Amino acid sequence: MAQSPLVSVVITAFNAQDHVARALRTAAQLDADRPVEIILFDDGSTDDTLAAARAEAGDEPRIHVIEGGRQGRAKALNKAVTESTGHFIAILDADDIALPHRLRVTVPVLQADPELAMVCSEAIVFEGTPPQLPAGTHTAPQTHRITPAMLYASNRIIHSTVLFRRSAWEQAGGYDERFDICIDYAFYFRLLRTGGIAGTDAVTCFRERRDDSYFAAKDRRDYHGALSRIRAEARDSLSIPLWARLAAAARSIRSDAKQLGALLHAPTGAT
Description:
It contains 9 helices and 9 strands. It is α/β, with parallel strands linked by helices. Strands 1, 2, 3, 4, 5, 6, 7, 8 and 9 form a 9-stranded mixed sheet that branches. The longest helix is centred in the last third of the chain and has 23 residues, at 242-264. It is globular and about 55 Å long. The chain starts with 6 loop residues before the first strand and ends in a 7-residue tail after the last helix.
């Protein structure tokens, strides 16, 4: 009898034809004791994302490509998780790179503490050519707890590093489909209502920064509106101390000032 997967790697893709095959390849190269299932959910791409994913899947039985039609990111993630069968869910954005040791670092953390809903790790951000992984970046990682206050003050969790329990996702009600942006941030608060979140200092992902991504192009007002709504709901259901509220407010002010400065110093005629 075939052994069931302990981990399902979930990738949702929208117009990611230049990156999706790379993401699938790195997911297939993850080192694990048990089989790893890979779910690619195409969220209504209008380019060749679906064809690229199917070509990469080829004869690889662990990769399951789903043509879902345009759903929006939160609904696409929920549908992909629903279609998966793993006990743990590892998220990988379609333009990011999973490093081979990712599951070796994160799975034992959840296995060792049943009170944890999720574990995350560190990522190296790059533009253009992926970097080389520095030596020793995944040896003897240190683990720490991420509290609601820490998350409220600043979201430093990289979505492509998270590993969470399927049972916690179910208990939390999945990703919040009301949001079109800050989807991961809203989800982390949902998970904190079901269990703890741990972080490790191991680097398990290369995250590509692209100015042409869908979320980079979202209106800044949409971003601030979603952020305010998520934090308001967090204050209603979790214990958020005053220092965290002040820290979040200060970050917002600095961000707005930086954005205003960029606009004031933009060349004449720039849009």
